[in-house]
Write a structure and sequence with these properties.
Blueprint (H helix, E strand, L loop, with lengths): L23 E4 H5 L5 E5 L4 E9 L2 E5 L2 E5 L3 E5 L5 E5 L4 E8 H5 L6 H6 L4 E4 L2 H15 L5 H19 L10 H13 L7 H7 L4 H12 L3 H19 L4 H7 L5 H12 L3 H6 L4
Antiparallel strand pairs: 1-8, 2-7, 3-6, 3-8, 4-5, 4-7, 6-9
């Protein structure tokens, strides 16, 4: 039996040292040329990316399907989606990276918004999207007292514009219905400390079946996927509310604040207080 190739998880491509900022902006040129214009297949557990091609061309492999990215086009790559590129040399454009709490903080929420941000999208950039991209890059490069607030606001506006540009119908991914049902259950039971077995029972499937579905969709076990969702909500609360760190843990089913802090550090690479500090001021 042929084994599936290992697809690495990265924060930014080739990097595993933790996400460096509130959001991240870089030129396609800056990273692609370091790899001879070929970005090998990889995925991100906690980061959604938008590629905007100003000038040039790329052949893209997205979860086993081929696509192209040309002048004036954008590509949305959600979390867990395997993607790789072969760029035409000297291609120029932007790579915009958004950690999961930025998406989780978008309000008002709706099933349609979540669905559109969970599927890859290729399209032609609108004037609004181009303007928001330029404003985001400018804000990213400029220090300031309210830099993080501005970056989050612009990122969410840009993602909302992409949702507006996205096709209304997309083919469902394998296991998509179960994954959407799992996400709804996680949102409903965040404070109850449910484990994979509890969610499997609620979905009327075995824990092993749930893990197979999660692994096929995301490359993660059910337990790791569920913990990631819980920590994304923790990150959202730390970034966008003033709820004390211990209370964040209590609200997410952690009776022991120290254990919550240890698990948060294990997944985010820094303490809850240090993470909150990135979004303050």
């Amino acid at each position: 039996m042929t084994q599936r190739p290992h697809i690495p998880f990265f924060d930014l491509f080739g990097e595993t040292g933790g996400f460096p900022d509130t959001v991240h902006c870089e030129r396609i040129w800056d990273r692609a040329r370091l790899h001879d214009w070929v970005i090998s297949p990889h995925r991100h557990a906690e980061i959604t990316q938008v590629f905007f091609m100003r000038q040039g061309h790329a052949e893209v492999r997205i979860d086993g399907r081929d696509a192209t990215l040309g002048d004036g086009q954008f590509l949305l790559i959600p979390v867990h989606i395997v993607h790789g590129f072969e760029f035409q040399k000297l291609s120029e454009g932007l790579v915009l990276s958004f950690p999961a709490p930025v998406l989780a903080g978008m309000r008002p929420t709706s099933p349609g918004l979540a669905a559109r941000l969970s599927r890859p999208v290729v399209g032609t950039a609108s004037d609004t999207l181009v303007t928001l991209s330029d404003q985001l890059v400018a804000a990213f490069a400029r220090p300031g007292l309210y830099r993080a607030n501005l970056l989050v606001s612009l990122a969410q506006a840009l993602l909302a514009e992409i949702c507006a540009l996205a096709p209304t119908e997309e083919a469902a991914a394998p296991g998509g219905a179960k994954m959407m049902a799992l996400d709804r259950l996680i949102a409903e039971h965040l404070a109850e400390g449910w484990r994979a077995g509890d969610y499997a029972a609620a979905l009327s499937i075995t824990p092993g079946h749930l893990t197979r579905i999660c692994h096929a969709a995301t490359g993660l076990s059910a337990s790791r996927y569920i913990e990631g969702k819980v920590m994304t909500e923790a990150s959202r609360m730390l970034a966008f509310t003033q709820v004390p760190v211990a209370e964040v843990g209590y609200r997410l089913g952690f009776a022991d604040p120290a254990y919550f802090s240890r698990r948060f550090r294990a997944l985010r690479g820094q303490s809850p207080s240090a993470y909150r500090g990135r979004f303050v001021g």
